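Box 3.1 A note on notation
Throughout this textbook, protein chains are presented in two layers. The first layer is the amino acid sequence; the second is a token string describing backbone geometry. Keep the layers aligned when reading.
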Amino acid sequence: MRCDLPGDGGTPVEPGADGCDAEDVLALLDELGVEGFALVGASYGGYVALQVASAVPDRVERLVLLDAAADLVEPDESLREVWRQEQSLVEIGDLAGATALMVDTSLGPDADDDHRALLRDMQRRAFDLQVAAGDEGANRDLPVDLARITASVTVVVGHHDLSFFRATARVLADGLPHADLVELAWAGH
């Protein structure tokens, strides 16, 4: 089962929404009657997965984090520069340029044209949804306490990812009670 987080897949962000993606994931699992589950999250989805696993550690049987974002490492200058460039391009309405920036930043050097096209389509859709929502609504986060997460965790990071994500992966692997770190030599974000 795959959750479609508003603004990151096919689901638009509701104007004025004050939601919590982790609470939405938990509500979906509850609605479907799912008690125990494995959870996989990539990038921001990894941060959402960490929130869920910290909130209901007794229900999470396994956790896989792929280049997860988390508030565990201070963003470095290379990440801040990507954010500045992305924001500038979005502000002037150059969503094609912002999309190209994110594709170039995210993929490793061996990515082929098919993978570039898939990421380009996904990222452009996310920008379209997020720009359409404007500054409406805010997303709340649940607290993350790594010590509460008791499931076995695999932390995966791409060797060609930004240093922030590589450092975050190391902090996660060191801070989670039952974690293994896997670095993919060919991968970006």
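The chain has a mean pLDDT of 92. The longest strand covers residues 60-66.
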